[in-house]
Hints:
The chain is mainly β. It has one helix spanning about 1-20, and strands at about 25, 30, 65-80, 90-105, 110-125, 125-135, 135-150, 155-165, 190-200, 205-215, 220-225, 225-240, 245-255, 260, 265, 270-285, 290-300, 305-320.
Amino acid sequence: xxxxxxxxxxxxxxxxxxxxxxxxxxxxxxxxxxxxxxxxxxxxxxxxxxxxxxxxxxxxxxxxxxxxxxxxxxxxxxxxxxxxxxxxxxxxxxxxxxxxxxxxxxxxxxxxxxxxxxxxxxxxxxxxxxxxxxxxxxxxxxxxxxxxxxxxxxxxxxxxxxxxxxxxxxxxxxxxxxxxxxxxxxxxxxxxxxxxxxxxxxxxxxxxxxxxxxxxxxxxxxxxxxxxxxxxxxxxxxxxxxxxxxxxxxxxxxxxxxxxxxxxxxxxxxxxxxxxxxxxxxxxxxxxxxxxxxxxxxxxxxxxxxxxxxxxxxxxxxxxx
Length: 321
């Protein structure tokens, strides 16, 4: 009960900080107040560089095989006026995604996702909206280590590799703005790599994750910068029964972006990094599971500080296969 109270306090603190110090998530003007490791740090898939390609960072504990739907929202502030020192224009990146993970053999699994984006941003000339299908992701996941000790502790190490398929539209004119990531897709084939480790002990688990996206050049000779993500999260089982499970999680997630290029030339003010604190929960009942996660920036250094990360929110509903 003590651990549950501590976790609730963390969630309340994050929501208070979002409301008072940073922001609340919005879609346009609406405010949004069996254990195998998921290699899902790559389901950002929106676009590259400065901002908008942030990973959702949600790893599910409850299902190794599933099909489901997920919502992921990001909020940024951008400096669209060269004569203003403060980033004061809102940018909202919203994604609804169909995703699935299926086991092919005891050690090999395949993960796939296809997103639908609806983004909105303020500019000097009014609001701009884009919507449509984004880039699809296909990844193979191989279990390198799956060991249980005499003390019933569990170690698992997974290696992932795959591709991002350019189904989303790339708009070259949008790439010339403060945030080139205001896109439906990168227009390029990208290579995805991931490494994840989980250590489970008693009613708790610790997850460590690394992933790297090697981004290619599109038809417009534009190349978004490579992206490196890293994360650490602590999970705790508050309820663990045969047909009902409730877990909570808290941790950190970092992202590093290399500069964009066009015609082989580096574009200034397109690299950066960010570090987020995060907290969330996951609820499982029979074959169903749902979860949600909140993320707030600890450090934001995007696009030479022309872009400021504000907050992120994700929610999913899965059906176990």
